[in-house]
Specification:
Layout: H1 10-13, E1 21-28, E2 31-35, H2 38-46, H3 60-64, E3 72-79, E4 82-86, H4 94-100, H5 102-119
Antiparallel strand pairs: 1-2, 3-4
Length: 120
């Protein structure tokens, strides 16, 4: 289940992301996604690429360091119409590190993700 069951559309339409549920589930590209409403499920189905998280849903900051790290679904950033997810605990918030140098980290993460996709 992607993004710990959080509704991808809600990242773009709400003040904070919402948990999805099994009743509004979609499998897209072999990945299971949950949505919080039938409306959000339909929105996703009409243009899924628009809502998919960057770097396969792995932590954006870690991807810039060529690592796949699980995310905290409540640590996120929507920038230029793209969803970036981050690892966050009480002692480490990679979103704050990302915000210190987003342009360079975004470029590195994109390069590393492209390599990982090509290897699979």
């Amino acid at each position: 289940m992607a993004v710990s069951g959080y509704d991808l559309v809600s990242y773009f339409t709400n003040d904070s992301p919402q948990k999805g549920n099994q009743k509004q589930a979609v499998v897209y590209d072999s990945v299971l996604y949950y949505f919080s409403s039938e409306e959000n499920k339909s929105i996703f189905e009409n243009s899924p690429e628009k809502y998919l998280p960057q770097y396969g849903g792995w932590c954006a900051h870690a991807m810039a360091k060529d690592k796949k790290v699980q995310i905290n679904p409540e640590a996120y950033l929507v920038n230029e119409g793209k969803l970036f997810l981050f690892y966050k605990t009480s002692w480490n918030n990679t979103q704050l590190k990302w915000l210190n140098n987003p342009s360079e980290l975004k470029q590195k993460a994109a390069e590393n993700w492209r390599k990982k996709v090509e290897q699979e």
